[in-house]
Amino acid sequence: MTFKFQKFYRLLLFSGVMWIVLPFFLSAQSVSLKYDKYLNPKDLNTAIAGLNKKFSKKSRLINLAKTPGNNELKLLEIGQETGSTKKTIPAVLVVANMEGTVPVSSMGALYLADMLLNSDEMTDSLTWYVLVCGNPDALDHYFMKAYPVDPRNAKPHNDDMDELTDEDGYNDLDKNGIITQMRVKDPEGKWIPLEKDPRMMRKADPSKGETGIYKLYQEGLDDDGDGKYNEDGKGGVNVGINFPHLFKPFTATGGLWPGCTEESFNLMKFVYEHPEIAMTFAYGSTNFCMVPPKGGRKAGVDLNRIKIPKRMAPMFNADPDKTYTMKEVMELAKAVVPPGMEVTESMIASFLGLGAVVNPLSDDLKFYKELAGEYKDYLKEKGMTEERLEPAKAKDGSFELWSYYHLGIPTFTMDFWTLPKVKEKKEKGSGITTDKLEKMTSEEFVALGEEKITAFLKESGAPAQFKAENVVKMVEDGKMTLKQMAGMLKNKPKPKDSKEGDPETKALLAFSDSHLDGKGFVNWTPYKHPDLGEVEIGGAVPYTDNTPPEGMIDSLLNVQVPWVFEIAKKLPRLKILKTKTISKGGGVYELNVWIENTSYLPFPTAMGKRNKRPAPAILVLEGDNLNVLSGKKRTPVSDLGGLQTKKLTWLVMAGKKSQLSINFNAPNAWGDQKQIKIGGEK
After folding, report:
1. How high is the pLDDT of residue 252?
2. Number of neighbouring beta carbons within 10 Å of residue 503
3. What's 145-171 look like in SS3?
4. How far apart are CA 44 and CA 112, in angstroms?
5. Cα–Cα distance between 302 and 595 in angstroms, integer?
């Protein structure tokens, strides 16, 4: 059976690995269930069904789909408007474990639902939709004997495109209940053991005169005789990467098209049918709360370096050899479009054929970075100070990328645990960081000297051609600013010392040795393989790197889950600030209405503004004997930044004294309404 850390059910937090946790929080954090073990999909559904039964007045279960593995995909609705067909208040959608490989994330979603139902604090003015597991078929694998980490659902799929389906699955050759790896000596091998710890493997570096010794395979047999091992096991689609944004066709696990599974299709359908959803949260392996969405993707449009095609340049009065920012192109377009036509980013992108945006917009990154700083401060206050490995980067086709890029609403993610970093002895470095670099003058940078600059470039992962001498010359000649250099280096992965081994494997071994009694790693053991001959079987135990011992679950969730409430408090909230009427004579009035976003987050995000999603708020004027002379009775409001105020003006005629209703409709941002007296002139 895959190792489940059963002896750690009652494990206390370890000094140096977990964090000291404050014993209590707000009353809103009380829970009624126990969080001392991981639950399979059926038990998760039983748990949320129990919560629904106990709190039936403010919750209901929604059946989204049935999976190929016969699991029910159930979503729990929580709030004062539960069951109402017309929603008047915003909603937050929380989905967990979309890839099915992070059991603690499903426990986090269950914990959140438990907290919400045991308090009215965060449900009086918000609706919550909670999906405790978006890929239950894959979660089932965690509870199966001899099954590795596998994100595919149970839909049959011919992975190797031969005449058979699901015929070459996993084989537990050493009968220890765990699928690990096989290493076999081979002249064409690329791997060598690490000198400091032979359990670890690294690729040989031919440039340093190293020759590979081993080939690596997943533990198993070639059941179908095609020379490959375990390449066509049971299952088909990874639900977690079956969403539209950057979806990759013709992959082994992504599916034939976005939404080709019942799980992803029905979740997307639900979202589009509920425009009141103002924010999404995804619990899994990424963490936008801690690390803002990453940029650096290629093959997309760079909105800061747009080239206008030669055939179109005269139309814009633009130089085809020059690059422009999106804002500059919009200004050029405003000068040539017909009067009254609104120029938007999506219009420009479509007209110029720029393609999909694949990197987060800078205006959005501002609030992501600020909130990430607040989150880190929050964790410090709660005693969570242990340095941990970086969360995973969002995958193409993931739910969170679809939510941010397509829905245009604030999208956050959270992983609840990664392995603690191994503490290394710090060697004397350059003392320079990219943040310090941005604040330096050119003279200060040059004065550092080539030795320090060389050390900094090496620490930052600069390309090999970036020699200190060349960089200094570029800075002195004005060919590169320090801000440009810092921006480039921030997106570069930090260099790894190959002789030190992979940091993730190193952290896994350290955690296994110090806290799991070595049971997170199977030592390499000889085995006579029917096809490969003498091999060794061993390697990391599945789930050791992303699934904390069960005794840690409650403490981890108790600290981190409540952060969603802090983010939800920052949702855009639209209100009518004040109104003013000015008589122009003859029964004509100038009507001024000031609207405001009283909260921190913008309405919508910069990405939403570009994509014209979500739908705009609508300000509606209604009243007897009302004639609008200038402006519209229904005025869309599609852009209102955080803590921003905007003035709208109409000319109206009201011959008789009457009451005018001003309705600011925004189901995903609360909205507002006011009544004023107007008219009376003869």
Report:
1. 85
2. 17
3. CCCCCCCECCCCCCCCCCCCCCCECCC
4. 13
5. 33
Task: Give the span between the Cα atoms of 391 and 288, in whole angstroms.
Answer: 9
Residue 619: strand pairing partners:
635, 664
Q: ∠112-118-119 over CA atoms, to 5°?
A: 95
The pLDDT assigned to 20 comes to 30
45 SS3 class: helix
Looking at residue 65, what is its pLDDT?
Answer: 97
Q: Which two tokens stand for residue 183?
A: 């290493």
- Tell me the sheet residues that pair with 529: 533
Q: Cβ(512)–Cβ(544) under 8 Å?
A: yes
* Residue in 381, 170, 409, 203 with CA at minimum distance from that of residue 288: 409
- Per-residue pLDDT of 541-587, as tens digits, reads 999 999 999 999 999 999 999 999 999 999 999 999 999 999 999 88
Closest-CA residue to 24 (of 548, 569, 555): 555
pLDDT (0 to 100) of residue 17:
33
Backbone phi, then psi, for 122, in 5-degree steps?
-110, 10
Low-confidence ranges of the chain (pLDDT < 70): 1-29, 157-168, 223-227, 229-233, 298-301, 346, 425-428, 464-465, 492-499, 680-682
114-139 confidence digits (pLDDT tens): 999 998 888 889 999 999 999 999 99
pLDDT of residue 451: 85
Give pLDDT, residue 300.
59
| CA 591 – CA 678 distance, rounded (Å) | 9
Both tokens assigned to 280: 């999404």
- What backbone phi and psi angles, to 5 degrees, belong to 138? -70, -35
Which residue shows structure tokens 């600011």? Answer: 664
Question: Which of left, alpha, beta for 430 (phi over 0: left; psi -120 to 50: alpha)?
Answer: alpha
**How far, in Å, CA of 217 to CA of 224, rounded?**
16
Q: What pLDDT is attached to residue 1? A: 42
* Percent helix, percent strand, percent coil in the chain, to nearest 5: 30, 20, 50
- C-alpha span between 631 and 619 (Å, rounded): 11
What's the pTM? Answer: 0.82
What's the pLDDT score for residue 427?
58
pLDDT of residue 223: 66
Q: How much is the pLDDT for 496?
A: 55
Q: Hey, which residues does 214 pair with through a beta bridge?
A: 185, 191
Own/partner long-range contacts of 107-110 (Cβ < 8 Å, ≥24 apart): 107/35, 107/38, 107/39, 107/553, 107/557, 108/283, 108/414, 108/416, 108/557, 108/560, 108/561, 109/133, 109/283, 110/33, 110/35, 110/39, 110/44, 110/47, 110/48
**Confidence at residue 434, expressed as pLDDT on a 0 to 100 scale:** 83
Sketch out the chain's domains with CATH numbers.
Answer: 6-143+239-295+361-418+548-568 (3.40.630.10), 181-234+504-540 (no CATH), 311-352 (no CATH), 434-490 (no CATH), 574-678 (2.60.40.10)
Rounded (10°) angle between helices 482-490 and 468-476: 140
On whether the CB atoms of residues 667 and 90 are closer than 8 A, the answer is yes
